What we know:
- The protein is of the alpha/beta class.
- It folds into 2 domains: 2-140, Rossmann fold (3-Layer(aba) Sandwich), CATH 3.40.50; 157-351, Glycogen Phosphorylase B (Rossmann fold).
- 31% of the residues lie in helices and 17% in strands.
- The chain contains 13 helices and 13 strands.
- It has helices spanning 11-15, 18-27, 64-76, 90-97, 111-118, 130-135, 156-162, 184-193, 207-217, 230-238, 249-257, 305-308, 312-322, and strands at 2-6, 32-38, 53-57, 82-85, 102-105, 169-172, 198-200, 221-223, 242-246, 261-265, 279-284, 334-336, 347-351.
- The longest helix has 13 residues, at 64-76.
Amino acid sequence: MNILVIRMSSIGDIILTTPVLRAIRRQFPQAMVDFLVMTQFAEAISGNRNIDHLLRFDKHRYAGIGGILAYARQLKRRRYDLVIDLHAKARSRLLCWHLAARVIRYKKRCWWKTLGVRLRWIRYHVDDTIVRNYFQPLKVWGIHYQGETLEFDYSADDARTAAAFKGTIVFAPGAANNTKKWPREYFGDLGRLLAGTIVLVGGARDHADLELIRRRIGDRCTNLAGQLSLKQSGALIAGARFIVTNDSGPFHMARAVGTRAYVIFGPTDPGMFDLGPNTVLVYREVPCAPCSLHGDRRCPQGHFDCMRQLTPSLLAAIITRDGASGPRQCAAPRQVHPCAAKDEGHLRLCNGF
């Protein structure tokens, strides 16, 4: 049996497919399993033991409808029996249309819900986690949800590259959209409140913003934006004391490698993820949040309270009380409303959600 799994982008969403790949391999141990991803995101899934062949789609080489159809003709030669479309957008749908195979497609949110959120008629609350939704259409093939344990692979060479920064605190201030980013000056102030060496990770385009954070923290902070591959960044996170991150790729990388993560949510719904006991969700429950599917360029209300009210001193107090000293497991998921400080208000702090 030949199976193709499609998830083109992005880093976090691709890592979220790893429970599905594990379940496919368990159900069909003798099958050939291919995974199709955009070239720039291939490192998010390469090396996964449940994939036989990693196929890369170059969106520049295969641009437009003609390019997609040309690539589809190449895929058709691999004679797939089953295609699992976890991307479910125009490009993947067009590819599937030409493969002459049985197609199972991940069902996204209802169209009216997407429209209502974009028009600001309703607040956005998810129906279920992304991983659970990935599994929904697979039940007919005997592939069932069995938890949200993620995987991220890196090599011994990647680990050696990251070894110089083992035991540091990692900050990942980037995100795909502006409103998913905790203010950069807040990261700088948090760094000044925490003891220890701090490393900043991100892509090359993040370097200028992260340099401002580094200067605010001082000499015990190193800006590695654009200097590490995704695999090397994963190895760095694996050896960290803990990571402070926005809702972005490094958050899921930390979940996959088992590092203590403090993840900051603002306009998006944390219910998208079934967080494990090694993740602390920090989320300000303001009346207008969650307001966005994936974040926006600017706060639709203009005040950005969901992030602005989450102060560096508040997060530093959470980290200190938590006693984070390295990757560890808590006895059980918990949800509390810490109100020791007057400015904490309705802050949700969760291990698990």
